[in-house]
Amino acid sequence: MLIIAKKTNKLDGQAVLPGSKSQTIRGLLLACLADGQSVLRNALDCSDTNTAINVFGELGAKISKNGHDLEIESFGLPLLAKTNRLRTDNSGITTRFVMPLLGLRQNCAQEIILDCAEQMRQRPTKPLLEALNNLGMRVASLNNDGACPISATNELRGGSSIIDGLTSQYLSALLFSLPCAINDSVLMVENLHERPYVEMTLAWLDEQRIKYEHKRENKKDIFTIYGRQKYIAFDKNIPADFSSASYLIAGGVLRFGQVELIGLNMNDQQGDKRLVKILRDMGADITVEGMKMTIKGGRELKGAVIDCNDIPDMVPTLAVIGAHAQGRTELVNVRQARIKETDRIKSMYEELSRMGARVEEKDDGLIIYQSDLRGAPVHGHNDHRTIMALAVAGLVAEGETIIDTAESINKTFPKFVETMNQIGADIKMINS
Question: Any idea which positions bind 3-phosphoshikimate (predicted)?
């Protein structure tokens, strides 16, 4: 599929935003571990969440859709796996969150295989595998490369382990599962990145009254998680997704007009909400009243130095914004953006360069200078965030921008084109 984006001088209108992917999948996981019926309201419907639904269903939960809500029935622990082979497609969060759950199954002495699609097979999981082996399980990469497919046996019993913090998903996966282990656990986390996602995980644990302790010593995070705890069924509203909203926010800021976005909660733990403060500091006119955000576009933006360590998903969006801002914009301290669905530092350097931007690629980020963008055929790298950010660039560029692998937006924001059209963007999707 292709997305074709044409220069759009003015964006006007209102859009209701989809639910958060990160919150939806966290809710599905805990509902699977709880005994009883849980409800997730305003849950995101996309390929990543559908993958999670399928996997948690194979682990014994019964999950049904009721409009925008998900109803989950589970018998709790031990999980009753229906198969000895699970598949998580290209969902990184589902793949990593499921790994510890394989040690909470009935008859977990029996081997189970966890596999995924090719893109996810290229993403690292070795630090999580090593930690799980320290915590009682026996897990191994079948290709001996530290990635999927993996085999798993034995119980997640708890204990002590060091875990790398390059991606927060390793830590969150363990924080969700270890309260169910028979022993207490201590995790020492080195080099913790993406802290807002960990805070999101801890907020779920706090709502469930899970007992744990967290302290920081010598630049390391130490978590003590008490075992033999239980999750209880719940009914929760999923807030709108700031990551998906970023493309509408960016478009609203870069073009003239007024855009209203409905459903965003600035009190939610999602780290990507920091985009709002970043843009305000650069000169954007953005106001928030309750769950409504209003963006008045066309203001001049000034370049900035932006530490993206906590917001790696914003790198593509901020790169596009940087090409419009006066002077130069630096995106720094975000080396982990190279191990997402694609190397987002490299992909944005390459594609914005094709569109005429002056960009410099650094080991841990990008330097982007104010540039006059021109439409061009660009590669989406099968990465939903790269594709949607390039579509926003196409609204600013002279001429027509054609983005390939556009079907990848289904991973998190299937209605991206439709929603952008609601605020006046000249974007369409066609078969390639």
Answer: 21-22, 26, 167-169, 313, 336, 340
